Write a sequence for this structure.
């Protein structure tokens, strides 16, 4: 299959979005970018997002960071919100990835960033019911402790919902934000991979 | 392709759900049921929904209808809400259709009715942006009057949203209510038909 699009995948925790996204990229022979690759890219550019996230309580350490982010973003303003600054940096990195050519980008509101920039992309949302997600999360963390799994799911869900709603002004999980939304619990991972590839290669 | 599922299609006005659903049914060689067929079936059973909808202001004419609906639904209660009674009749008809075998059922909250009844089905939502829908609605009603098109879209959207939210308690357009949600404006009708067929035939 041939295609010239950027594919963004937003996903619920435990719905297999990472696995599905990796396979789509592999099978189409295009790069796959997730949070880890985004952090590594930021680090290469002189920013260590993970470190900054941990150290954000120490204002003195952040001064230099704000200035460098402001310069990177081409602005001259002062940033007083760590999350906003990191989000802006992620936007810049997402646009860099997308401009290199077809790829799969996971999470980080890439769908909205690319749409706002007028870059052609296929925006996919992958979700699943709680039972499928709980089983998957249990496998991921090697636990059968239901309370632990439930707490982790709630925490991650809330975090992703809040992040998306805050930075996009749109409602998380509303199908209108995406071109294609898939229940990986009902459809299965293999079929999700096939449907995304078909949609990406054949969309008008 | 072979498959043994009922496919339900919920759709926004002007998003082409009727066309897409008809084609899926034709290409899979299974029956297609829409509102008109549902009304005809109700009429064969002694109920004229369209007539009832028109005459609902005349309470005396409705008395017999309530009684017959209550009998049809196996209940003995009194119905004071026309829409609720019609909805219950539609539910009964939807279950009849689904029990006959694989088919495509359009609208009328068929997704929720079948899920509640434990009947295996693929639930699809078809939507599109306002521009694609406006062009389609203009074609449907043979008009280029933007105000007329906009008013009709708003009216139909509100009606479907309210109907779905009222009778299902779920949020219209939330991808979690469906197994597959498709933006027919981005993907095009042909691809929507192909994706639905593939999902219906290959889902686990």
């Amino acid at each position: 299959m041939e295609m010239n699009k950027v594919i963004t995948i937003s996903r619920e925790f435990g719905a297999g979005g990472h696995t599905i996204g990796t396979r789509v990229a592999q099978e189409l022979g295009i790069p796959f970018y997730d949070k880890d690759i985004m952090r590594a890219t930021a680090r290469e550019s002189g920013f260590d997002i993970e470190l900054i996230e941990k150290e954000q309580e120490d204002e003195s350490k952040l001064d230099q960071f704000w200035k460098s982010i402001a310069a990177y973003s081409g602005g001259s303003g002062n940033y007083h919100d760590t999350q906003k600054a990191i989000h802006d940096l992620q936007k810049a990195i997402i646009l860099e990835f997308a401009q290199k050519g077809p790829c799969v980008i996971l999470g980080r509101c890439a769908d909205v960033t690319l749409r706002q920039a007028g870059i052609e992309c296929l925006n996919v949302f992958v979700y699943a019911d709680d039972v499928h997600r709980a089983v998957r999360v249990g496998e991921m963390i090697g636990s059968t402790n239901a309370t632990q799994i439930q707490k982790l799911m709630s925490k991650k869900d809330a975090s992703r919902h809040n992040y998306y709603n805050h930075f996009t002004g749109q409602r998380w999980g509303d199908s209108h934000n995406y071109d294609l939304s898939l229940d990986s619990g009902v459809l299965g991972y293999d079929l999700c991979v096939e449907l995304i590839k078909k949609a990406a290669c054949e969309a008008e």
Q: What stands out?
A: Chain B touches chain A at residues 122, 125, 127, 173-176, 178-183, 186-188, 191, 194-195, 198-199, 202-204 (CB under 8 Å). The first helix of chain B runs from residue 17 to 28. The CA atoms of residues 8 and 123 of chain B lie 5 Å apart.
